[in-house]
Every structure is written in C-alpha cells, then in structure tokens.
Amino acid sequence: MPFLVGAGELPETQMSRGSLSLSSFWGGRFRQFSSEDLPNNLIDSIQNDDGLTQLLGDAAKAQLDGGSWLEALGAWRVPTILFALASSDGTVQGVASAYVALCKELSVPLIGIIQLGGSWDAGKRTLDGLPWCGWIPNEENEIGNLKADSVQTEIEVACENLKRRRIMLNI
Questions:
Q1: 0.90 surpassed by pTM
Q2: What are the Cα distances from residue 76, in Å, to 91, 106, 109?
Q3: Which CATH class is domain 3-169?
C-alpha cells in the first residue's frame, strides 16, 4: 500500500485534495495518518492491499523515539509517492530534490513525484532529473482555467505513470 508523503509539511487542504484526487483513480482503500503518529506500529498494522495511505505533516520530522516516518518507510520498504507543492508559475522549491535525496539515503522505495498546483510543463520537469510522474491542479483558479475532462485526464495520466513506474521498479 503506497504512502503519499509531502516534500516538507504541505498545507493539509492541498495535500488532501491531491491525495483524494489520485486515490479516486488508483482504487482500493484510502487511509490517512498523521506524522505525529508512531510509524512502526501503524505500518505493521496495515493490511497489504493496493490502496493509498496519506501521511499528513512532515515525514522527515524526528519522532519522540528518535526516528522519523521516512526512516520507518525505508526500513519497512513501503512504496512511497512524494507530493511537491509548486508556485503559480510552476516553480518547485528545492525541498523536492532534498526529499528525493533523503528517500535515497534512507532506502525509501520512491515510486515518483507528483506536482501539486502551479502550471505544469513536463519538459521543464524532466530537466532536474527527478522522477516526476505528473501534475494535479490544486487551486480553484487553476481548475477553473481547465476543462473538467482535462483535469481528470491529468490525474489519470499521473496515476498511470505512477503505476507504470511501480511495476518497472518492482516495488
């Protein structure tokens, strides 16, 4: 069951909107946890299925036991999808690169990254070498500028790209 994790602490409304949009096309059960919860107990209790689990809060934040959610996701080999917030012009802060590097360092099986909000330029996204899989519009004005079927198509494409990468990476 892949985890949906923000690259940094993303606003809950944007994280939830992106997670629910992706989950509607992914299928399976949808769960939500907080980064304040103890990860090892929760990961151990999750049944294996093909749904998605959203983690609200900062996954790299140290827990009281000294570990973090990202460390636990790596230790348990839990497939992970990162959400990165973009500004209105599509610029993504360096936190996305930092989280990809941290996932690599902690052996987190990273499926890919989804851009939340901003304008989407697939060609520009590939220039940074990160595993971008798509875009989900996150603001009402972004959605208003697109036709409803275009928004659905973007989400479907992102979902299919993630599933394809998961198979390719065998995670």
A1: yes
A2: 32, 11, 10
A3: alpha beta
